[in-house]
Every structure is written in C-alpha cells, then in structure tokens.
Design brief:
The complex is a heterodimer of chains A (272) and B (197). With 272 residues, chain A is α+β, with helices and mostly antiparallel strands. Chain A has 10 helices and 4 strands; from the N terminus they run ααααααααααββββ. Chain A has helices spanning 2-23, 27-33, 37-42, 47-66, 72-95, 113-132, 139-155, 157-174, 190-198, 201-206, and strands spanning 216-220, 223-232, 239-248, 257-262. Chain A has a 4-stranded antiparallel sheet. Chain B is globular. The chains are: A alpha+beta (272), B mainly beta (197).
Amino acid sequence: MLESIAAVQPLFLGLVLAWAGGYKFTRRALVAAGDSALARLVGDRRLTLTYRAVACVELATAAVLLAPPAMRWELWLAVALAGGFLSYLGYTRIAAPTSSCGCMGSGAGRVGWRHFARAGLLLAAAAVAAWTGNGPITTLGLAVLGVELLVLLLLSPESHHAIHLQFGRLKERLRPHPLAATKELAQIPLQATLERLYDSPVYAANASLLRSDVQDYWDVDDWRILAFAGRVGAEPAGTVVTVVFAVPAELAPERIRMSIVDASTLPEPSLN
Amino acid sequence: MEALDRRKVLTGAVLGGAALVGATAFGSVEAAHAHESSQSLDDALDPNFVDGRITAINGMTLTVIGLQNLLTQIRITDATSVWKLRPTTLKSVDVGDGLYARGARMADGSLAADAVWVNIVNLHAELTSIGRGVLHLRYGHGQLRGHVVPGTTSAVYGDEPATADLSRLRVGSHIQFIGAWRPDTDDVDIATIFAVS
C-alpha cells in the first residue's frame, strides 16, 4: 500500500513545485516579495535575483520529478527543498515575524501555522516516497493524490479567504438571515437622529456654539433629546452651557427644537 | 438619580413642558444666531488633538501615551463628551483603551478635553460570513469579528436613513463601519455600518 502512495508523490511534489516556481515569475509575486522575509534575509538589491533563482530551482526540481524515468535522487532533492522551506519559515518567525512568506501566492499575510503545515506536508510526501521507493500507480494512489491536493488547497493561506467566502455564501443560501430579527426593531438608531439633526437649519445656525460631541441622549414621548456641551461668548470668559436639542420621531426638520441652558445651574452629571 | 434630574431639567428646557427648576435657560434660537465662534475644525496636526493609549486613570485625568511615546494628561470635565461605542461616561473607560481627544491645550501641557472618542475605528472590510450577532470580516490580509450590539448597531444603506435593520447585509459585499475596537483583539463592537443599498 505504501508503494502505491509513494508512487504518486513525484506527481504531487512536481505539481506543487511547478505552481510555486511559476508563480514567482509573475509581476504580482515580485511586488509581494518586497514584504517577504526573503527581502530581509538577502537585502533589497539581491531580492529579485535570489527570488528568481529559488523559482528556477523549484521549476527544475518539478521538471525532473514529473519527467520519466523516476529516480530516487529526485525525491531526495525534493526532501532537501522541503526542508529548506521549513527552515526559511522558521527563520521568518524568529527574524521577521511580521513579514509575509512570498511562497505560493500574494496577499497571504504574515507567516502562520498554515504555512508550516503546508511545508510539513511537502516534506512528509517527499520523505515517504524517498524511503519507500517506486511502485505502480494505482487507483488508491490517485485517490491519495486527490486528497493531498485538496488538503494543500485548504491549508494554503492564499485560498483561505476564497474558501471562507464560498462557505459564507453557501450558509447564506441555505438558512434564514441570522440577523433577520433586527428587521422588527422599532427603535430609531442614534445615527438616524443625528443625520436629521445635522441636516436641520437650527443645527447649522448653532453648530458653532457646540464644543463637545453628544454627551447624553434619551427619549421622551415622541421626541429624542440630545445634550451637547457648548460655550456662549468669547473664551475664556464665556459661559459653559448645555445645548439641548429635541428631534421629533417623524421626519419634520422644521419641528426640531433647541435650548441653551447655563451648565452651572444644572444638577451635576453624576455618571461622570 | 441626579442624572435623571438633569435629564428632566433639560427636557423641560427644550420642550417647555416642566418648569425650569433652578436652571437658567438662555433663551431662544434667534438669540443663539448671534453667537459666532472662531474655533476651527480639528485636524491631526492640531495641538488641540491627541491620540494614544490610556496608561492610567486618576479621578478625572487620563494619562495617554501617544505614537512617539509622548505622554499627555487629558482632563475630563462635566462639559466633555465621552464616546465608547455610544455616548457614555468616564466610568466605562479602561486603562489600555485607545482614544482620540479634542480640546484646548492648557499652559501645563495637559489637554482640557471637549470630546473623547474611545477605541473608535473606521474601517473598510469585506463581509465573508454572517453569524448570529457577529459579522466575519476580511480586513487587509486579516480577519476581524464585528459584533452586533442590540439596541446600538445600526446600518445605513446607500442614501437611506440609518436603520436598526441589519437583514439586508449580504455576504461578499464591501462595507465601511464605525465601531469600538476591543483592545488587543481582532474584535470590534459595531456602531454604524455603511453599505450599498
């Protein structure tokens, strides 16, 4: 059984390395590589050269793995390469924890457990094949290859977002909207009251008095009352006031009322 | 109790229902038209603006450490508005919170705050899935959880007025939202969502 699993590993490793190497030749990849730990390791000047060199090694390894005849040394090369990936990720975690990987796709963010798991999968695949040796390709082998590719896709941080989004869309289609209950809420949000207030002539005429944002608000009958701190007269001699607006529940900007109250004559705001 | 008294007095002042016990109302809208202010709108380079994390709270004074490790004392008065997801008071502010404060710089270097916004964030994100009371959001390369707070979270769809109805949010859409970050987590309590209609 191990032989039939080992038999498909050159194919698996070859496909993955061809992807990784090919990706590194895209313009997007080179831009993303600027944020990677590789830039830190070799310096910005040698980044392009090093990045392309890694890509060439990956593509060359992919070529020998995919092209017959299957030789044992090819798999040891893959073991070395996968070991190198793991060392590089380890270096990234220690030396540049905020850097990205630059491995197989852009936009993957900082290096995390998924990167390690993916490199670990490659190392395990290469090691199993290198130790076991070659056998015939069987149906079991092909099934294992399918599972390996699927696991790699799921592990890849690059595809994580797309998978998450598709899962979210599927859930949305299959079940009622989880926030459907908010449709029944009768209350008017503070934001809606503020929009009405800010659009009103009475606010525009008096906004220059205000010093604070909304300090407090509450509802009385069909009115929402909002209190602001303000100042009447020139500073510093001016009087500290509380500017209070009453906004009606229905849409009628002309009905918005305002009053200015000397703050020193008000009961203390005990909550402060 | 005092807070209730205060609200009662202010309600009476603006609606004219109850008597203004002990409070002096300055009068009408027309009178207020006469007052002009020379105070300019705030901007980030203004000395009257501070942002940073709160390292200590002593009575009504907050010690804030800013971007360049600059310590500022922020004085909260009865005339200061405090926002933390909604208009609130100093009692709900904690050490470790981030803030933006606007006010007047005093001679001793402290800031007498007119308004303080605690943990406020204004972010653009993609909605990747909707759960019961939580929005899963992709922000930059990372993930955020946006918590729906019943009675507070509202949505603005296009040009429509804000509503409490969040059932029109769709997976895959891009939203802008204002909320209060829970410090040192990937969680934000959402105040207002701006979405396309």
